[in-house]
Each structure stands twice: as C-alpha cells, then as structure tokens.
Amino acid sequence: MIETAIRPTRDRSRALRARPWLGAASLAASAVALGMALVWAPPDAVQGDVQRVMYVHVPSAWLAYLAFVVVFLASAAWLWTKAPWTDALAVASAEIGVLFTGLALVLGSIWAKPTWGVWWTWEPRLITTAAMFVMYVGYLLTRGLSTDFERRATRAAVLGIVFVVDVPIVHLSVLWMNSLHQLPTVLRAGGGPAMDDRMLLTLVVSVVAGTLVYAWLLLERTALELARQARILEARR
Predict the structure, then answer these.
(1) pLDDT tens-digit profile of 69-93?
(2) Suppose 74 and one of 89, 146, 188, 218 were both cysteines; which one would form an S-S bond, judging by CB atoms 3.0 to 4.6 Å apart?
(3) CA gyration radius for the chain?
(4) Of 28, 29, 43, which is closest to residue 207 (Cα–Cα)?
(5) Quick check: pTM over 0.90?
(6) How distant, in Å, are the alpha carbons of 16, 53, 94, 226, 230 from that of 222?
(7) What are the residues whose beta carbons fall under 8 Å from the beta carbon of 45, sequence distance 6 or more?
C-alpha cells in the first residue's frame, strides 16, 4: 500500500511541475509588496515608519494559521486514507508554519519595543502564539521518536488534529481577554476602512504575496519529503 501511494499521481505530478512557475510568481509578488510597503504606502500618523513592520507581521501570522490548518487537514487525510503523500504534506506545512510563527513573534517584538516600550509582555495574543510555536516544534520533534513510518505518521497526525485548536484561540484571544494587542479589524465602527487606502491595499498585496510564497515552499518541501520516502522504501527492499 505504501509503495503504491508514494508513486505520484498525474495530478500531483502536474502540481510538482508547477513549482518553478509558482516560485517566479511568488518572487515577483514579494518584490511588488516590498516596494509598496517601503515606498508607496504612507507612514502611520501615530506610529510612523515602525508601522511598516505590519506588512510582514500580519502575513506571517496569517500563514501560520494557514499552515497549521493544512497540517490538520493533511493529518485527517492520513488517518482516513493512509496515503503517504498526506503525511508528507503535513510535515511540510508544519515546518513552514513554525518558520512563519517564529517570524511573526520576532516581528511583533520589533514593533512592540517602540510602541509598547517592551520587547515582550505577558499578554494573551503573545502567550497563545508562543504556545502554538512550542506545540508545533513538539509536533516535529515527535516525528523523530519512531523509525516505523506508519506509527510515526499516525502519532503525528493525532497531534496535528489536536493542536489546531490553538489557532482560533490565538486569533480570538484579543476578544476573549484583556489585551494590549490591536483588535483584528480593518473597518471603523462606522463601516469605513480603519486605515489609509494605500496602506490597506499594500497589506492585501503583502498577504497575497506571502500566500504564494507559502504555496511554493509547500510544494518544494512536499516534493523533498516524497523523495525521502521513496529512498527509504528502496532501502528496505
């Protein structure tokens, strides 16, 4: 069963062949987003230029959410189908999610120092995000506890399904608890945009560019994991 599932289907082969095009698109979109963030978007009226950190911080937080939801979906798919490509997708997305979660925490600290006066404070969004980072680092470490492919994939899948509960907790923590962190909204109470139109468009472009980067990294890392699985299978023959 494992040998059959490792062989890429036609659809997955097409997806993997799209990697160079997706990489080029993500690079171009990132260059546009960077130019808009540094030059085109105006500085914030209150925070000044430090607000520009938002154009990377917010996409990083979004990609952390997206990556861990993909881990959840791929983990559920593994338990349902036992297809090794679903496990490859899960570990690839988890690694990328840890990267972007760490980046969101670092960039948040860079923004917090001039804004709040401290690099770190024990407020709900920061604590729950740090907990999410530790959870998925643990998820990756757990995968190294067994050399049996199916046992390792199943244990990781269970964790991938359980840990996703922290994603909505992180996002809604600013609403559930007293928090210094900005509320998750782009609209004023009256219905108008809460930021300058150029700032809002720059943020949207940055999120799109980040999502393209995530998709490209996901395909690249999944391809590497499938190749590793194939080598292990060959070595066992």
Answers:
(1) 999 999 999 999 999 999 999 999 9
(2) 89
(3) 20
(4) 29
(5) no
(6) 9, 30, 11, 6, 12
(7) none
Give mean pLDDT, residues 127-142: 93
With 0-12 / 13-18 / 19 or more C-beta atoms within 10 angstroms meaning exposed / middle / buried, residue 203 is buried
Q: Quick check: is 231 in a domain?
A: no
- Indicate whether 62 belongs to any domain: yes
Residue carrying the six token digits 């993909």: 70
How buried is residue 204: exposed, middle or buried, by Cβ count under 10 Å (0-12/13-18/19+)?
A: middle
First to last CA, the chain: 14
Contact 89/218 with Cβ under 8 angstroms? yes
Q: Which tokens sit at 234? A: 């060959």
Polymer length of the chain: 237
List C-alpha distances in Å: 142 to 12, 95, 146, 153, 175: 27, 13, 8, 10, 32
Place of tokens 């194939």: 230
- What's the pLDDT score for residue 183? 56
Structure tokens at 183: 């509320």
Residue 111 lies in a domain: yes
d(CA 156, CA 133): 16
pLDDT at 195: 72
DSSP 8-46: PPHHHHHHHHTHHHHHHHHHHHHHHHHHIIIIISPPBTT
The SS3 call for residue 226 is helix
Tell me if 63 sits within 8 A of 44, measured CB to CB. Answer: no
Token couple for 223: 């391809």
Domain that holds residue 167: 55-178
> What is the tally of structural domains in the chain?
1
